Automatic annotation (TrEMBL):
Membrane-spanning ranges: 18-37, 69-96, 102-119, 153-175, 187-209, 221-242, 248-270, 323-343, 350-368, 374-392, 412-432
GO cellular component: plasma membrane
Gene Ontology molecular functions: amino acid:sodium symporter activity
Localization per Swiss-Prot or TrEMBL: Cell membrane
UniProt protein name: Alanine or glycine:cation symporter, AGCS family
Gene source species: Acetitomaculum ruminis DSM 5522
Length: 483
């Protein structure tokens, strides 16, 4: 049995490396590039409008139109699933493997990811349905089912997307997240994994049983708090290393476009070429913001809005907040800390992952010989991972509902999902990580196909809304002149 598990693990790792390899990354970023040009760069041109709309009081109200939760709640619930351990551990791994230049490619992929995130969310709102409980239900599976002219192909692709989403929800969205929380609390504070498992299972169950309305209420409080907390702590650490910041930023751009492997300076012993920076930057960027995977579109479909394009712009900002803001804080922190490319004395190997981020924080957050960096990162990972569990539960639940064509079994999914949290906290399952990682990547394939197939309908709605937007801006300008 042991040999079988070992061999299975090796097979899954090989498949995992392939599905998250160059072909998938080219498809994800390539689709984003195509959509950016097809939409005449409107997702970029309207980013300022989208950010202003997101931060407005109106986005926190249910306002006009139909839906279950406010536009802001739809965004924060999607962000709950998106902002996670990848923002802390994933960025550190990318920098350790691809050098500081990986950060630049992370930004580039995020720019095109704006178009993908906008498109998948907008289409989810356009083709959403109302279920037997009177709730909005949508996502890429409904986009394929209702948007494709060939209903058989649409239904098949939708079913496959839903299946992969359910699998990913238990793995990437549950087991691996609860395991990260338990592991970091055990390492930093020596908290029993069983105790951690019991606490987060009870918390998850109490929130998840309330459905999307309770999940969204918790998310719109937890997500802004955890993001602001992490960003503020990160900025303090960056300011503390301000003398290294210019060199760190310079190395990001020089290594991002260097044909030959270069290093030295703040990189320590790390050398990397443009291809390494591109590979790890794009991979970790996509993994972090999930643009093109279709997951955020499931939550977007629950928003109350008078126009699906408008809400698409609001949800699009999720990629901006995740990668351009939170991931950038981690990247600048590490690149200015001076610990990148140095040896971790406890392992005798290069700092990477959470240890690298902790070491970077410790360069500033060390008081009287007490290193506080581990506490900050542990709290950050715990909040990020727990919010990911909540957000992914909703993604998985709606996919589960699609597979059974009815919401009456959702309560079963909620209970099982909550109980699996305990399993993840108390058991290290490497095979589960690889298996769910594969499912996470496979979600992207039908989703990318649907965006490409429906790109003409997508562009038509976007261009029509642009005229509405111009009229609204003229009206606002007239009101300001009168005032």
């Amino acid at each position: 049995m042991g040999n079988f598990v070992t061999e299975l693990g090796k097979v899954l790792e090989t498949v995992d490396s392939f599905v998250w390899g160059p072909v998938m990354l080219v498809l994800l970023v390539g689709t984003g590039i195509f959509l950016t040009f097809r939409l005449k760069f409107l997702p970029w041109r309207n980013l300022g409008y989208a950010l202003k709309l997101t931060l407005s009081k109106e986005s926190r109200k249910k306002g006009k139109g139909t839906g279950d939760i406010s536009p802001f709640s739809a965004l924060t619930t999607a962000l709950a699933a998106t902002i996670g351990t990848g923002n802390i551990i994933g960025v550190a791994t990318a920098l350790a493997s691809g050098g500081p230049g990986a950060m630049v490619w992370m930004w580039i992929s995020a720019c095109f990811g704006l178009s993908s995130k906008f498109s998948e969310c907008m289409l989810a709102l356009k083709y959403r349905e109302v279920n037997d409980h009177g709730e909005m239900t949508g996502g890429p599976m409904y986009t394929m089912k209702n948007g494709f002219k060939n209903k058989k192909i649409g239904s098949l692709l939708g079913w496959l997307f839903a299946l992969f989403t359910v699998i990913a929800s238990f793995g990437i969205g549950n087991l691996t997240q609860s395991n990260s929380i338990a592991d970091t609390l055990k390492t930093t504070f020596n908290v029993s994994t069983v105790l951690t498992g019991i606490i987060i299972t009870v918390l998850a169950l109490s929130i998840i049983l309330g459905g999307i309305k309770i999940i969204s209420k918790v998310s719109q409080v937890v997500v802004p708090f955890m993001a602001i907390f992490y960003v503020v702590c990160g900025l303090i650490a960056i300011v503390g290393n301000y003398k290294n910041l210019p060199e760190g930023i310079s190395m990001m751009f020089s290594m991002a476009f260097s044909v030959k492997a270069v290093g030295g300076g703040l990189c320590g012993t790390i050398t990397a070429s443009m291809m390494q920076a591109l590979r790890f930057g794009v991979a970790r960027g996509v993994f972090s913001n999930e643009a093109g995977l279709g997951s955020a579109a499931v939550t977007a479909a629950a928003a109350k809005t008078d126009n699906h394009v408008r809400q698409g712009y609001i949800n699009m900002t999720g990629t901006f907040w995740d990668t351009i803001v939170v991931c950038t804080i981690t990247g600048l922190l590490i690149c200015s800390s001076g610990v990148l490319g140095t040896i971790n004395p406890s392992t005798g190997e290069l700092y990477t992952g959470a240890a690298l981020t902790i070491a970077a924080f410790n360069t500033v957050f060390t008081f009287g010989g007490v290193e506080v960096g581990g506490w900050l990162v542990t709290l950050g990972i715990s909040l990020f991972a727990f919010s990911t569990i909540l957000g992914w539960e909703y993604h998985g639940e709606k996919a589960f509902e699609y597979l059974f064509q009815s919401p009456k079994y959702n309560i079963i999914y909620r209970i099982i999902f909550s109980l699996v949290v305990f399993v993840g906290a108390t058991t290290s399952l490497k095979i589960v990580w690889s298996f769910s990682d594969i499912a996470n990547a496979l979600m992207a394939i039908p989703n990318l196909i649907s965006m490409l197939v429906l790109s003409n309908a997508l562009a038509k709605d976007v261009f029509e809304f642009q005229e509405i937007l111009k009229a609204e801006k003229k009206s606002d300008n007239k009101k300001q002149m009168v005032a």
